[in-house]
């Protein structure tokens, strides 16, 4: 070897390890894993607690549920974070029992005997839903198109609304008797006090402490109840340090078709939610998510759910609290979540931890549950805000699915219960639900409000967006439908949609070239893309097509039709607007374009306009194009609203600020 030669090992580049795959030192690994467990713990144990109380489960069985839940959460988290074969996305995703299963699981259990007996049918449905999820994983990416935001948002909203009565029921439950006792002010104080404690912690705490506000609220509420004599930890000392809940501890699972379909629907919705968590986590850790990753995620969810049914637990999904914790801490390693999984498995074989959780008084638990379940509903509403409701199909899908879900949820059968009234035990018999009005397999969609909302939303989405038809009304007072737009001549298209872009033909022509349009959103996007792809000369033509602020026609009406808020100015105010418009045109050579609909008062228009006078010409052209895009967007909304009575009514209720 010559003097200039270098050893092969010295010239070989070392492969960079992605932060997701890096393994922290053991001390950090345990500490960071424990942090994930603490953030996750309250949400994890709430599900078995609420189910047990709602189906009248005995204390020993509740201990088994909690330990089994924690143990299986650990397995599910390791499956997702570590991965085996094509199972698991290998990202820092902590898995927990989804709240979406609460209402259907409680209903299934109570309809099949309640208590331990009812759980046998629940576990049969959980196992079947898990196997179904595992098998459809390779095809799930293709099924996502049947679960757009309008479907998932509607279902998640119903889930939150359906769960609220469960939390409210615990909030008025006597922790000594286990019976509903709404007349006792102490239970009200515990529930409302816990709720407000969580709210205040989330308001004033920062970072990790805000993340565990629910857990801290439960601890504070329980401590106060213990001081007042309404909480007892006597059972903790009686429980053993170690114990393992064996698979099928309650007996052989029973398989009921209606129950299975109900949980399959829930699994599909939560699989979409898991997919969202995967994309969010991928963005946080800087890893591109592929179709194979989605399949691996769903496959792990399916396997974890099937294992959950065998180990006396319930369906699993990624916990959004822990996705937020990954962003908050900046710790991207999936092995931290794997360590959290091991910690949970250890907790799952320690009955004392379960007994501590059992000691939380029902009103305290109810107060925390109300916060969490209301948050679920808000997440659904937040999802619905991403939906284009100017397309009346989305409006019908959301409104109908919510209406049907609430109808079924309100009329659903209840389990027999006992309440305290004036200190006396009063037995309340079960009431028949709306599902009893339909025969056989038709009971499936009427089994729970969540199932009904999901099935309604999915079927309506297929009907409106995936089957043939004339399409959505997009113009002409409802006479012009989407498929007719796709068949228009160029001149017809210009006549129909020219006003959206001030009758500038090149924009309409370029949008026309993007036919066929799949939906109203696609049509809107075509105009937006057309404006942004114009040449400098074309864009200047578009800007100069707009009138000056304050310009009037022969009878004194504003020629800028989007500036209705400027139509009722007095002479002095109008003069100030004209002075601004004149100064702007003299400097830049084109009119000042302002989307006045986003300005509450004309003073804001003036202030924004004068602040732009000092900008460069190129900056102002860019500003003008942004304002034109906003104006076109509002005009498109108006056009679609005029085309559809339902959408028009919705817009008619909004105060005009343009």
Strand order of the largest sheet: 1-2
Q: How many β-strand stretches?
A: 6
| Span between termini | 81 Å
Radius of gyration: 30 Å
Tell me the overall shape. elongated
Number of helices in the DSSP assignment: 27
Briefly note the structural class of the backbone: mainly alpha
Largest sheet: 2 strands, antiparallel
What level of helicity do the residues show?
55-70%
Instruction: Return the average pLDDT rounded to an integer.
Output: 76
- The percentage of residues in β strands lies in under 5%
Poorly predicted segments? 1-6, 8-13, 427-431, 641-658
Question: How does this model look, in words?
Answer:
The chain is mainly α and 658 residues long. The chain contains 27 helices and six strands. The strands form three sheets. Strands 1-2 form a two-stranded antiparallel ribbon. β5 and β6 (480-481) form a beta hairpin.
In short:
With 658 residues, the chain is mainly α. It has 27 helices and 6 strands. Helix 11 (257-285) crosses helix 12.
Helix and strand arrangement:
Layout: H1 8-11, H2 26-54, H3 59-81, E1 95-97, H4 102-111, H5 115-143, H6 149-171, H7 185-204, H8 208-211, H9 213-227, H10 234-238, H11 257-285, H12 291-310, E2 316-318, H13 320-329, H14 334-347, H15 351-358, H16 362-384, H17 392-411, E3 417-421, E4 424-428, H18 449-465, E5 473-475, E6 480-481, H19 482-486, H20 490-497, H21 505-512, H22 520-532, H23 536-544, H24 571-588, H25 602-611, H26 617-643, H27 645-652
Antiparallel strand pairs: 1-2, 3-4, 5-6
């Amino acid at each position: 070897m010559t003097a200039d030669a270098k050893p092969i090992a010295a010239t070989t580049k070392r492969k960079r390890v992605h932060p997701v795959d890096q393994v922290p030192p053991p001390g950090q690994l345990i500490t960071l894993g424990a942090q994930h467990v603490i953030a996750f713990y309250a949400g994890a144990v709430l599900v078995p607690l609420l189910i047990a109380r709602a189906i009248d489960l005995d204390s020993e069985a509740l201990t088994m549920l909690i330990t089994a839940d924690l143990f299986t959460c650990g397995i599910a988290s390791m499956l997702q974070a570590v991965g085996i074969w094509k199972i698991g996305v290998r990202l820092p995703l902590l898995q927990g029992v989804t709240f979406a299963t609460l209402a259907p699981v409680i209903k299934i259990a109570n309809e099949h005997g309640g208590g331990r007996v009812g759980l046998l049918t629940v576990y049969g449905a959980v196992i079947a839903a898990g196997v179904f999820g595992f098998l459809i994983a390779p095809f799930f990416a293709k099924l996502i198109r049947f679960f757009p935001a309008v479907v998932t948002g509607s279902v998640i909203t119903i889930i939150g609304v359906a769960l609220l009565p469960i939390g409210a029921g615990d909030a008025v439950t006597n922790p000594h008797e286990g019976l509903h006792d709404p007349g006792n002010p102490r239970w009200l104080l515990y529930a409302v006090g816990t709720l407000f404690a969580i709210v205040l912690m989330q308001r004033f705490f920062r970072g990790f402490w805000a993340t565990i506000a629910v857990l801290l609220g439960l601890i504070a509420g329980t401590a106060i109840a213990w001081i007042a004599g309404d909480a007892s930890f006597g059972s903790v000392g009686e429980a053993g340090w170690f114990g393992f809940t064996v698979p099928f501890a309650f007996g052989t699972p029973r398989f009921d078709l209606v129950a299975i379909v109900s949980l399959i629907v829930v699994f599909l919705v939560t699989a979409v939610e898991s997919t969202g968590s995967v994309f969010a986590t991928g963005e946080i850790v800087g890893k591109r998510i592929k179709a194979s990753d989605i399949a691996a995620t769903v496959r792990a969810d399916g396997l974890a759910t099937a294992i959950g049914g065998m180990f006396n637990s319930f369906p699993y999904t990624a916990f959004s609290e822990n996705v937020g914790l990954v962003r908050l801490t900046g710790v991207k390693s999936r092995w931290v979540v794997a360590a959290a999984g091991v910690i949970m498995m250890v907790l799952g074989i320690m009955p004392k931890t379960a007994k501590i959780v059992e000691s939380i008084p029902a009103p305290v638990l109810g107060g925390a549950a109300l916060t969490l379940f209301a948050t679920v509903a808000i997440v659904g509403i937040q999802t619905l805000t991403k939906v284009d409701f100017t397309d009346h199909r989305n409006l019908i899908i959301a409104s109908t699915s919510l209406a049907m879900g609430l109808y079924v949820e309100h009329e659903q059968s209840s389990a027999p219960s006992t309440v305290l009234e004036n200190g006396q035990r009063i037995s309340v018999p079960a009431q028949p639900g709306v599902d009893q009005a339909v025969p056989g397999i038709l009971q499936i969609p009427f089994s729970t409000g969540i199932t009904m909302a999901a099935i309604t939303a999915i079927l309506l989405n297929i009907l409106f967006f995936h089957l043939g038809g004339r399409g959505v009304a997009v113009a002409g007072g409802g006479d012009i439908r989407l498929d007719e737009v796709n068949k228009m001549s160029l001149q017809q298209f210009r006549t129909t949609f020219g006003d959206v872009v001030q009758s500038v033909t090149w924009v309409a022509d370029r949008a026309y070239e993007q036919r066929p349009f799949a939906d109203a959103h696609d049509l809107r996007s075509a105009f937006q893309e057309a404006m942004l792809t114009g040449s400098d000369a074309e864009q200047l033509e578009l800007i100069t097509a707009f009138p000056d602020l304050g310009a009037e026609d022969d009878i004194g009406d504003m020629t800028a039709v989007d500036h209705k808020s400027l139509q009722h100015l007095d002479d002095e105010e109008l003069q100030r607007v004209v002075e601004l418009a004149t100064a702007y045109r003299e400097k830049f050579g084109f009119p000042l374009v302002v989307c006045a609909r986003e300005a509450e008062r004309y003073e804001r228009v003036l202030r924004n306009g004068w602040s732009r006078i000092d900008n460069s010409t190129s900056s102002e052209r860019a500003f003008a194009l942004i304002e034109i895009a906003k104006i076109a967007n509002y005009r498109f909304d108006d056009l679609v609203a005029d085309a559809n009575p339902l959408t028009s009514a919705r817009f008619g209720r909004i105060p005009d600020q343009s």
